[in-house]
Amino acid sequence: MANTATNYRNNGTRSSLNSKSSSSSFKSKVSPASSVSSAPPRRSSTGSVNSLKYDPGVPGRVRVAVRLRPRNAEELASDADFADCVELQPELKRLKLRRNNWDSDTYEFDEVLTEFSSQKRVYEVVAKPVVESVLDGYNGTVMAYGQTGTGKTYTLGRLGDEDTAARGIMVRALEDILSEIFPETDSVCVSYLQLYMETIQDLLDPSNDNISIMEDPKTGDISLPGATHVEIRDQESFLELLRVGEAHRFAANTKLNTESSRSHAILMVQVKRSIKGRDAALSNENGDKSHMHRTLKPGIVRKGKLVVVDLAGSERIDKSGSEGHTLEEAKSINLSLSALGKCINALAENSSHVPVRDSKLTRLLRDSFGGTARTSLVVTIGPSPRHRAETSSTISFGQRAMKVENMLKIKEEFDYKSLSRRLDIQLETLVAEHERRQKAFQDEVDRISVEAQKRIDEAERKFADALEKERLKYQNDYVESIQKLKDQWVMHQENVVNERGKASVISASEQVTEVKLLLEKEVSLRKHAEEELSNLKYQLMQRERSEAAGSSEILKLRKTLEGETRQKEKLEEEIAILQSQLLQLSFEADKTRKQLDQNGDLNVPNGIDSPVSQVRNQQLHDSGHGEKASVAKLFEQVGLQKILSLLEAEDPDVRIHAVKVVANLAAEETNQEKIVEAGGLASLLMLLSNSDDETIHRVSAGAIANLAMNAETNQELIMAEGGIGLLSMAAANAEDPQTLRMIAGAIANLCGNDKLQTKLRDEGGIRALLGMVRCRHPDVLAQVARGIANFAKCESRASTQGSKSGRSLLIEDGALSWIVQNANNDASPIRRHIELALCHLAQHEVNAKDMVIGGALWELVRISRECTREDIRILAHRTLTSSPTFQGELKRLRIGYN
């Protein structure tokens, strides 16, 4: 019944496409999809096509695809005699909406999907680019809009349990995301909500039925802190989550759809990826010591958020037959869709006020339209002529949405938790290693002490034994000698008594003399023994002194080791402080560079329309004195020589931080002379020559551009050191637009020096500028145009002073054709510099014939009449009237010009 109250879905999978549903024949009529075209959207050349004049290369514009639902069974029966109100031209990306049998309106979209387009093709052309951006750290939104019953839920939320080919965008998007992440370092978190009657309800927790919206006052980011967040590891758990959410979503039976969604379903997928430092973190946690000596630099974490919005279908009450509570639901749905349409209208018309607070739906989608997210919209329509008005309204909504441009912004931050974990592991390892070495040293000292004591004890024991043996030997010898003397004296007495009667020839004096000699001999022997004993005592004393000297040497070695340990700890602390100061200075430099990049180009010369003073004044105004003082303080603490020495570090990350600091210091004129005197310019040129890192090339070129901004001495030094050749080589190898912009800015600054014209051209400076136009980025083209204008101005000044008489070097190198092609460029900076370059080239009469042949005459006439700058317009007029060649050509063509 039409007034039946809204009910919950109790089935696991939503069955919104049955035999009577308006989107039931998607699956039955699907044919294999053709390959996705990569050509940009075509522009209509006729007045009858309602196409948008947009630039297909703008990365932040909302991309809109239209999908046609085939007729269902009811329409095949009731509208059999009527032709479809919609005719598709997918190869032209056009759609024709018939007013009647002979008239129709034509519209252009980014993609036109027929009723035979498969779910896979819809995902690849609508959602896959957004999913890839989310994996790269951007926010992304995929949304379906259309009349009820046209297949929005089929396109987004189809689970494909029976047939995997029928899976919708939600399932395919999570499948791609899960295949690109690393479970060890990355995470995927999912929330599933519905906006019902202006209240936000949690489909994963029905009791949580009034979730509030929080807005960050600084960044403006919208968050739902009360929502349930589920971390997803595999595809099966995500499918089960979708089944639970679909079972709790509100639906009702209407005349237009048997199971019409009565709420807006919102799937939020938050992806957190670790870009740098993943391998290092894992290996360090597993105990791998090979990375212990790497530079302590935190990894980068990118956070992207994918929002998939299945809007409830707009409906007319007289067609849907809604009554009672269903009628109130329809009113709430139409009011929120109306508020969304007003916001998109305001954004499309660049209105100063966008009514985002009129509805909770517009607040939730604030980042999707006019914010920082990459947004893709698929509008679903039906072929029935009965619903032509609703189909026309849906198409108009998509056309307005294509005019909305978002400012894409990557979200990344440093993974300080991982860095802290790595530092803790390294600290524990170093402490353990230090303790191990300390214990080994102490064990070695103890071993040496024990061994020395053993040797001393052994020497003392041997000496005591030897001394005792000598003493006993001499004592025995002494006793034996005395005994021998006594025996001899007794024998002598006996001989004297026995031979007393004989005539003795030996006198008593001789005997006494003999005894005295014997006694003297014994005394000398005893004296010799005492001398031997003294020598042994002296040797013992010398050994004791050597042992004392050894102990003193050991103590001295211990003190030396302790001093070296303290010196090592002091050096490690100093290294840590220097690394912290370098990181802090690099962070400050990055912040200053980003602010300067937002305000304008920093690498501009002191020549034509130079905005250097404006950029620096804006920088001082925005950043304030605090930040500048902080950078100056860090610079003063670290010192210029230490920063320049880091340009030659082996670690590429250290070199990148150092060159960023030098580039930001070079932006100040007070620092430029110091940097050049300290050898900073030579180091920057060496980085251009030796490094293969494009980031180092970009920042080095920016620093060289700053040094070449004002000082002619620096410009001549850059030329003398071969700077043009190095910049040209870097330009030939670079692909990033920002790198090419920095290189083009540096060459453009050198083009403003009158003395370096010929040498700059001979070393390939002009050819390098013309080679960078391949990038086609507006900022790069603006720098190329500025360099050509500077070169032409110097040539004009030289010809006026009479120092140059030949044809322009720009014309000889083939720059005239590019100048003529871009003389009326849509970008104001490019057009202004090119117009000025043409006027300066025309000042020299010898260039007039080449300019006439190359078509520059017509551009000079246009500049003299239509240029918005009066000085350029007057210069072009004076050139045309003063040149005989130009006047003759104008007369030949019968063009009156005064």
From TrEMBL:
<dbReference type="InterPro" id="IPR000225">
    <property type="entry name" value="Armadillo"/>
</dbReference>
<dbReference type="GO" id="GO:0005524">
    <property type="term" value="F:ATP binding"/>
</dbReference>
<dbReference type="GO" id="GO:0051231">
    <property type="term" value="P:spindle elongation"/>
</dbReference>
<dbReference type="Pfam" id="PF00514">
    <property type="entry name" value="Arm"/>
</dbReference>
<dbReference type="GO" id="GO:0008574">
    <property type="term" value="F:plus-end-directed microtubule motor activity"/>
</dbReference>
<dbReference type="GO" id="GO:0007018">
    <property type="term" value="P:microtubule-based movement"/>
</dbReference>
<dbReference type="InterPro" id="IPR019821">
    <property type="entry name" value="Kinesin_motor_CS"/>
</dbReference>
<dbReference type="InterPro" id="IPR036961">
    <property type="entry name" value="Kinesin_motor_dom_sf"/>
</dbReference>
<feature type="coiled-coil region">
    <location>
        <begin position="519"/>
        <end position="588"/>
    </location>
</feature>
<keyword id="KW-0505">Motor protein</keyword>
<dbReference type="InterPro" id="IPR016024">
    <property type="entry name" value="ARM-type_fold"/>
</dbReference>
<keyword id="KW-0175">Coiled coil</keyword>
<feature type="compositionally biased region" description="Polar residues">
    <location>
        <begin position="1"/>
        <end position="13"/>
    </location>
</feature>
<dbReference type="InterPro" id="IPR001752">
    <property type="entry name" value="Kinesin_motor_dom"/>
</dbReference>
<feature type="repeat" description="ARM">
    <location>
        <begin position="638"/>
        <end position="680"/>
    </location>
</feature>
<feature type="compositionally biased region" description="Low complexity">
    <location>
        <begin position="14"/>
        <end position="45"/>
    </location>
</feature>
<feature type="repeat" description="ARM">
    <location>
        <begin position="679"/>
        <end position="722"/>
    </location>
</feature>
<dbReference type="InterPro" id="IPR011989">
    <property type="entry name" value="ARM-like"/>
</dbReference>
<comment type="subunit">
    <text>Interacts (via C-terminus) with NEK5.</text>
</comment>
<keyword id="KW-0677">Repeat</keyword>
<comment type="similarity">
    <text>Belongs to the TRAFAC class myosin-kinesin ATPase superfamily. Kinesin family. Ungrouped subfamily.</text>
</comment>
<feature type="binding site">
    <location>
        <begin position="146"/>
        <end position="153"/>
    </location>
    <ligand>
        <name>ATP</name>
    </ligand>
</feature>
<dbReference type="InterPro" id="IPR027417">
    <property type="entry name" value="P-loop_NTPase"/>
</dbReference>
<dbReference type="GO" id="GO:0008017">
    <property type="term" value="F:microtubule binding"/>
</dbReference>
<protein>
    <recommendedName>
        <fullName>Kinesin-like protein</fullName>
    </recommendedName>
</protein>
<feature type="coiled-coil region">
    <location>
        <begin position="431"/>
        <end position="484"/>
    </location>
</feature>
<feature type="region of interest" description="Disordered">
    <location>
        <begin position="1"/>
        <end position="54"/>
    </location>
</feature>
<dbReference type="GO" id="GO:0072686">
    <property type="term" value="C:mitotic spindle"/>
</dbReference>
<feature type="domain" description="Kinesin motor">
    <location>
        <begin position="61"/>
        <end position="404"/>
    </location>
</feature>
<dbReference type="InterPro" id="IPR047149">
    <property type="entry name" value="KIF11-like"/>
</dbReference>
<keyword id="KW-0963">Cytoplasm</keyword>
<keyword id="KW-0493">Microtubule</keyword>
<dbReference type="GO" id="GO:0005876">
    <property type="term" value="C:spindle microtubule"/>
</dbReference>
<dbReference type="GO" id="GO:0090307">
    <property type="term" value="P:mitotic spindle assembly"/>
</dbReference>
<keyword id="KW-0067">ATP-binding</keyword>
<dbReference type="Pfam" id="PF00225">
    <property type="entry name" value="Kinesin"/>
</dbReference>
<keyword id="KW-0547">Nucleotide-binding</keyword>
<keyword id="KW-0206">Cytoskeleton</keyword>
